[in-house]
Task: structure prediction
Amino acid sequence: MTTPVALNTVWVILTSALVLFMEGGFSLLEAGLVRTKNAVNVTMKIFVDLTFGALVFYVIGLHLLFGRDVAHVIGIGRILVPNGLPLAGFALFEIGFAIATASIISGAVAERMKFSAYILVVAITCGLVYPVSTHWIWGNGGWLGRLGMEDFAGSAAIHTLGGFMALALAHIAGPRKNRFNADGSANVFAPSNIPLASAGAFILWFGWFGFNAGSTLDAHSVQLAAIALNTFLAAAAGGMSAIVVSIFKFGVADPSMTINGSLAGLVAITAGCAYVQPWAAILIGIAAGTLVIWATGWLDKLQVDDPVGAVAVHGVNGLLGTLAVGLLDSRQGLLTTGHVHLFLIQLLGGVVVAIWGLASATGIGMLLKRTVGLRVPEEHEEEGLDIVAHGIPAYNELERFSDATQIVFGKHPDKSVVTTASDVTKPVG
Amino acid sequence: MTTPVALNTVWVILTSALVLFMEGGFSLLEAGLVRTKNAVNVTMKIFVDLTFGALVFYVIGLHLLFGRDVAHVIGIGRILVPNGLPLAGFALFEIGFAIATASIISGAVAERMKFSAYILVVAITCGLVYPVSTHWIWGNGGWLGRLGMEDFAGSAAIHTLGGFMALALAHIAGPRKNRFNADGSANVFAPSNIPLASAGAFILWFGWFGFNAGSTLDAHSVQLAAIALNTFLAAAAGGMSAIVVSIFKFGVADPSMTINGSLAGLVAITAGCAYVQPWAAILIGIAAGTLVIWATGWLDKLQVDDPVGAVAVHGVNGLLGTLAVGLLDSRQGLLTTGHVHLFLIQLLGGVVVAIWGLASATGIGMLLKRTVGLRVPEEHEEEGLDIVAHGIPAYNELERFSDATQIVFGKHPDKSVVTTASDVTKPVG
Amino acid sequence: MTTPVALNTVWVILTSALVLFMEGGFSLLEAGLVRTKNAVNVTMKIFVDLTFGALVFYVIGLHLLFGRDVAHVIGIGRILVPNGLPLAGFALFEIGFAIATASIISGAVAERMKFSAYILVVAITCGLVYPVSTHWIWGNGGWLGRLGMEDFAGSAAIHTLGGFMALALAHIAGPRKNRFNADGSANVFAPSNIPLASAGAFILWFGWFGFNAGSTLDAHSVQLAAIALNTFLAAAAGGMSAIVVSIFKFGVADPSMTINGSLAGLVAITAGCAYVQPWAAILIGIAAGTLVIWATGWLDKLQVDDPVGAVAVHGVNGLLGTLAVGLLDSRQGLLTTGHVHLFLIQLLGGVVVAIWGLASATGIGMLLKRTVGLRVPEEHEEEGLDIVAHGIPAYNELERFSDATQIVFGKHPDKSVVTTASDVTKPVG
Result:
């Protein structure tokens, strides 16, 4: 290859690796934020995204998204690759985006959705829901893109969509047991592992450089450095405002809110990273870090149970980010230039994607309820999905407190297989 | 430097960093999969790979591998660097490969090998065993390479070798206490920390983009993007098939098997990532994710105790990957073109490397048994190697359950140094 | 952009991402090395570095460092960007360096500094202290740089400065309760989570390739590969010597010392990575890994309490690295060429930066003592800063041992909010 093409290829491969590594970030974030008894289950859901989700998108979704346009609504057939990139590199990068959408959902339905139901949610999301609405924005000839909607790396396409699908599915699945009281007040279940959740946030932050700057799909873009800087500044500002607001609101610098504040900043700058000035990126981050705390409170009031805050982070701030471009775009923003045109398009695009997410996820939820079932039985929820669906708890450190503990898993995992060292006689398979 | 050379240099440095970061992946994977009382010990073994292993390879092994060829069997002297790369960059990349081989072994002998013996295993592996057989495949003039063996990034050179060395040493070291019963049945010891092990798997998956795509050693290679995509698809397919098979076989989606299924897919595509089509990569992944579960069962039947599944993942699937190129190579595969030539060479190469691994590791094991000793005494195994060899347990969180617990380590670490806050009076050093 | 400029931009963005990911490394390292009851608090301090620290540096510090030179002492106004890089990329890279300095401090004052005081320490460090002394070395026209001081990626500028600031603040804050006995002997508090601390070390090691090789700020530099190799070799040698020395000194291969030995090797090669031969990098690493163990002992004798060893790793070995260039520089080192000139300049520079760090941090400490207060009350220290300052413990896994445990945080977090499942009735907000 010529050096310019080689550089673009290297760029797309390395940023693809960063985006795909974000799945590790989602995994640690969610395993750390849910209760211990479901930490394996959320981890396994990320593996579902990376396996079932990725393969379904590669085989089907990619064509619906980037195939030849039909009626500005859907793609079909041969994939059109931008910038002379190799198809394989472009496909790899886009897989990372599709499964990120699925991973957003995984957190919101944690601790009570059936594992088999989740596999179907992921397959339908990556194979149909995500490719369709994203074709509208990024596809060759999609109607929102033609209107001039600006969504550089997907505040709307990925985060609003994933967040509102998460909202619908969390609502349909219903809250975890004891999460809300009869008088409408809410209980908060403590995250099981804050250092692990933070590690997940740092990996996500790191991977986001690939997510946003990689979305140039062109290493020669003059915007590349500005995108990376804006991405970082918004995350920093989001974390900062969440620390400040949580101190005033809760009396303590709250770790979950700080994590989610940084992530909210990242989500909100994703649409505009290539279109706004650094000061605007900081402003967007500050708004996102504040909004995520209020949104978490609103969802509690609505009795929607989202164990990791995915709706507040991705849904609400995906919408914020989509609108923020309309306000702060350097060339056509409402606040920066006085033109209202772009803002209205962004509003339309954001609302359309949110409704599409709500509607499609409601359809999926209803379908699942009538087929494989959406929610685990109450006794499984109480026991925790780690033992029920995976035959093993997340942490097996009991040996330090009593005798060495060993677990034998078999065809019908139940509590009786958890045995102490003096009692390990059960043979395997 | 000219821009083409600079791009190649940047490529080799960044992919080297990814490959070396895989050591962190091995560390978390193994710390998560062993029992808590040996989590520090396996972590420290990875540090041995990164320190002793890397330096021995840099000083000695690198020359045996890439020096001037002698009789098609070994290299000697001045290193021949491909593609006009700087020697320093090439050396760094190759260090990552050598110590990965050692890290494969570390898991299989976990929980009972002496720390001093492990240091010697690593030094001999990186200084002699790995460079010799890898010279046959990748060295300038090595006999397997001259025959036309295809092993792009080392399914045979690294994974088959490491996996079969691991098999021999795990066999010689013998199983952990209580691992097998008198009637021949097996007990499974629960992994200590599934989220940590998963984090390790995600890091390995991330680093593997450097491992495979970086093996072009040339950013201008037209194969680069296809290699990265194939790598991902095989991992996704491996994880997917492991989830499906484990549900049918065990009744649950088993996390260890899912992790190892993804890794098996990565191992198996490593030889062929540059030579097969994407559909073939998916096929190879599916086979690998299935095979790793059966292989784990076979090893149990053979009463070989491999705490992390390194033999099943790297040994068995390294061989699978080596043979798969012979079957599915786009230009000369048996199934794709009907030619049997390449397949026979791959078979020869895979078997030769496996035998070399078994034989050399058997020699090393025998040597160690007669000198420093291979296995720790039974009472050390029961106590756990963390306290015995490193003076400290992996997790010191007792303070939450009783009084604050503090540990004083000193010249002769034993249980008595674990004290509570009210009893901390023992001075250090 | 032209391809050469694009390659430089890609290089600076990707290495910036690596450097910023090091914050995740600091977070895990420190969370793993402190006691469990303060693991959230140190994690939150890293978020302070990434948010407050980064924004203050971007808005103020960057100009003081790289603005137009005034009297060889400070910069002001418009930033001068090297190598035709985009300002945004250069700014992003430099943010990573500034906040690394703050993160070095965070560990040394862990477990007893007030959270509000720490925010001020970070703001003053990133906004004033770091930019001023670093202008002397790297600024356009800084007096130490003009003298010919060689500090390629900041053994002095970042590590000596951060380490000696840490020393002063740890001394002023005073040791943790029960850390030293009346007879002058020391107690060691066990690290809470060795696998987590190791994961942090691996991330730091990985990120250091960006830290050192990225400091070329030019992908076309012929030194690039040599820098990366030297960086790795010094880390490997540091870890190796720490393993060997700890076995001889303590009777066990000590994990904390191994981790800190590798990091000390990285710190010590940071000044000279572009100026020394690989054998010299190994030598520097061996010295660093040994020195860090002795330095840890000296600090204990001086009754300076540094929970993570930041002073020994960054302060002492930053100085070692600064001097080592004077000894081992290929072209003008004292030992390699017999010329003493460079060594004297390095000695001057290292001592000046150390004194500047001690003096400024002493000033900051005194200021804080008289205003917001530097240290938490004794009862807060006993309870742990996680509950006091953040309303939540790091690990909430009790449910496995008793009833499911859930925590409700509110305006006034205290022990009573920790409730069991049967008692969750307290509403939020």
The longest strand of chain A covers residues 68-70. The radius of gyration of chain A is 22 Å.
